[in-house]
Amino acid sequence: MEMNCSKLLLQYLGLVLLLVLWSDHTISRTDAALLSADDLRRVHELNKFGSRLGIVVPNMFEMNPLLRFNRFTPNPIVPYLDIMGKRFRIGKVGNQKVILVMTGLSMLNAGITTELLLTLFSLEGVLHYGIAGNANPNLQIGDVTIPENWAHSGIWNWQRFGSGPNNPLALESNGDFTREIGYLRFANYSITPTSDNFLNNVWYQPEEIFTVDGSPEVREHIFKVPVDSRYLEVAKMVEKQGVTLERCVNSSLCLPRPPAAATVAMGVSAGVFVDNRAYREFLNAKFNATAIDMESAAVALVCYQQRTPFIAIRALSDLAGGGSALSNEADAFAPLAAENAVRVLMNFIAALSSSSSLAK
Ligand SMILES: *[C@@H]1O[C@H](CO)[C@@H](O)[C@H](O)[C@H]1NC(C)=O
Ligand SMILES: *[C@@H]1O[C@H](CO)[C@@H](O)[C@H](O)[C@H]1NC(C)=O
Ligand SMILES: *[C@@H]1O[C@H](CO)[C@@H](O)[C@H](O)[C@H]1NC(C)=O
User: Is the minimum distance from the CB of 252 to ligand 3 under 6 angstroms?
Assistant: First the structure.
């Protein structure tokens, strides 16, 4: 009798232990796929110290000039948090508390990383910086642009051969696509004049956006995303004051004039590396584009969706597609451009900090 009782008890305890182990296992597996309780606690603790400025940068070679020379001071207690494949570096630039994160190349990486940054951390705004191709012949390699608007130039409706500007696009009638923004006609780019081309026309399309304060499942459309108006004022101040920028790659390779920071009308981004003169000229003529890159519009769109202040600083590394005296020198000038982008970023952060403390 007694034997049976203790045997039952043992069996019962064994079952409980099994359940505990099994549930633990389930929890840790779920956490690994999402966010661990430990990470969440660290994020929560960090957010208690107030909001920070988010700094989003595409690649390592663009981040390095900020990490070097003590421009970025890591937090001595929590220098970084690694979450879901991203390293969020915690620290300061000057007196400004920041979180710095690298996205990796192109629109999807930039969008995901910005979304994660905004979801996890308490932020006052987002600064994005890096290098870009240039579509504006009035500017020079090494100049640092701060566009007033960003557009995603990679959403197309590719029109079938035989249709033209007077024919509605596929799915235009239900509001999915539009002919309002304009198109590129392939026949216009033949070396020997042709009346037509089987590639016909591609029509530029706006993004669909679902803002945090909008109705879920009710889309808005936006093509040109404006940067934050206060950040733009600060950028214009920085432009006016002037920033000392790097002019020479080495003793024998210098730019014709000292580079400068410049606010410009427009930057465009898409999952496309533009090293083509005809397309560069089209982007400039059609959209008044200066900076061409692969991330900024994605960061801009996520910040717009979340109603978070945003601005981007992009230093020109090459005349996209070549054709100038300097030809296409992205390889030679990318490090100089990355350095110049960081110098303007530092000046911008300093000017922003002093304008915020004035406002307080
Ligand atoms: C194509 O070229 C013609 C002739 O130069 C011009 O009138 C037209 O605007 C161009 N179309 C596009 C979509 O660029
Ligand atoms: C194009 O942008 C420049 C600044 O980048 C501006 O000065 C100019 O007025 C703009 N042109 C048009 C047609 O919008
Ligand atoms: C300067 O840099 C250019 C581009 O990287 C290189 O081709 C050239 O050899 C360098 N010159 C010197 C003196 O280092």
Answer: yes
Q: How far is the CA of 259 from the centre of ligand 3 (A)?
A: 19
For 20-47, the pLDDT digits (tens) are 444 544 444 444 556 888 889 999 999 9
Domains of the chain: residue spans and CATH: 49-155+207-359 (3.40.50.1580)
Q: What is the pTM of this model?
A: 0.90
User: Quick check: CB of 231 below 6 Å from ligand 1?
Assistant: no
3-state secondary structure the chain: CHHHHHHHHHHHHHHHHHHHHHHHHHHHHHHHHCCCHHHHHHHHHHHHCCCEEEEEECCHHHHHHHHHHHCCEECCCCCEEEECCEEEEEEEECCEEEEEEECCCHHHHHHHHHHHHHHHCCEEEEEEEEEEEECCCCCCCCCEEEEEEEEECCCEEEECCCCCCCCCCCCCCCCCCCCCCCEEEHHHHCCCCCCCCCCCEEEECCEEECCCCCCCCCCEEECEEECCHHHHHHHHHHHHHCCCCCCEEECCEECCCCCCEEEEEEEEECCCCCCCHHHHHHHHHHHCEEEEECCHHHHHHHHHHCCCCEEEEEEEEEECCCCCCCCCCHHHHHHHHHHHHHHHHHHHHHHHHHHHHHHC
pLDDT tens digits, one per residue of 324-351: 555 546 788 999 999 999 999 999 999 9
- Residue 164 Cα to ligand 1 midpoint, Å, equals 12
Ligand 2 centroid–CA 119 distance in Å is 35
